[in-house]
Design goal:
By secondary structure, the protein is an all-beta fold. Helices cover 0% and strands 21% of the residues.
């Protein structure tokens, strides 16, 4: 997926959620996960989860199924670490 998107390890991207939220500055890290999937840490990525996206019955937030669109940042963010 990274290659098809023109991304390389260390590139920075923005993630856009179906609820209109956008988070910027996520670093691209290659990892063996199924095609078409991304992984993020929570609580950093909480804003990507629509408030109303909850499991029926338990009312637990639906963190495991959050559609996002990825876009490369035009100017790479430089980390101070």
């Amino acid at each position: 997926d990274m290659q098809a998107a023109g991304l390389q390890a260390g590139d920075y991207v923005s993630l856009h959620s179906v609820n209109g939220s956008e988070l910027s500055g996520f670093a691209v890290v290659p990892y063996r996960i199924p095609a078409g999937c991304v992984a993020c840490y929570y609580p950093e990525a909480n804003p990507l989860v629509p408030f109303e996206a909850v499991a029926k019955g338990s009312n637990t937030p639906a963190y495991k199924s959050v559609p996002v669109k990825i876009s490369a940042l035009k100017s790479q963010i430089k980390s101070g670490v």
